[in-house]
């Protein structure tokens, strides 16, 4: 039976400067679970982006729900070169499966710094 997982990206704060010319960042987020990836819009020229994305909905097999983490990657958009990774978060959703009621993980999540 397929399970459902929803994710919403609201905002980022205190992102590092990625564009030296403007001392800002053109950030966006990739949300991946299993083989499915969603992206937010690029929030230009800000170190505190406010995406307030739509709900990203994943339908996956129950087996995958237990084996795969939700991956959230924050990137800097570059027009003329490859996008630069700012950081990542891996969320183990096993604790959500153990709850008898629908469960939500909400709040600020620290990203693993991929710059250094």
From TrEMBL:
Asked whether the keyword Metal-binding is assigned, the reply is no
This one is known as C2 domain-containing protein
- Record keywords, A-Z: Repeat
Give all residue intervals belonging to the C2 domain. 1-109
**Gene3D superfamilies listed in its UniProt record:** C2 domain
SMART domains found in the cross-reference section: C2
Tell me which species this is from. Cirrhinus mrigala
| Entry superkingdom | Eukaryota
